[in-house]
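Example record for the data management plan.
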Amino acid sequence: MQPITDVQTLFRYQRAIRTFTDEEVPDALVHQVLTAAIHGPSGSNTQPWHFIVVRDPTVKHAISEVYEEARAAGPTPSAGGARQPLAAAPVLIVACVNTPASGRAGFQTGASIYPSVQNLLLAARALGLGSCLTTLHRRRKARIHEILGIPDHIESAAIIPLGWPDREYGPNRRPPLAQFVRYDHWTGSTAWHHRNTSA
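Corresponding structural encoding:
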């Protein structure tokens, strides 16, 4: 895929990529997407994120095997097309986050890691790289944490395969904006409001 510099175009062409070529991803590009990630917002600016970059084939295969078990363990949304095992990606990035003082991660914890993951995904697409966000590993979280040596006070939030896409991909497809937006109340109008600002 070609790099993208226009931000509005970037939003429309960032999509889940699950099949990659064998070409390696240089460390410099991995550093760029991770730099984008750590510039994401977080609750109270706590910046509680950590990222594990996995290139070792043995570790990737171990993660991939557990991930496939997790996929088979319950209902899985359709990926909508071809999908390689995680181990086929040149790089896996495991996004992690500090567990809050309560010991339980929830929406607020997610709000401090997933925006940074979105920064990573957008930065990857801007460079012409493919990626996707997956959380299915959490069905087998304990085994993934054992493989990676993740300590008890850290949660793994996502695994992101990263690599060069196997082909060109077009824009993502979305219904019209009006299908998702309401005004003033849940039962309010879905029509676009044209406010009269004249004196």
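Summary line stored alongside the record: Residues 194-199 have pLDDT under 50 and may be disordered.
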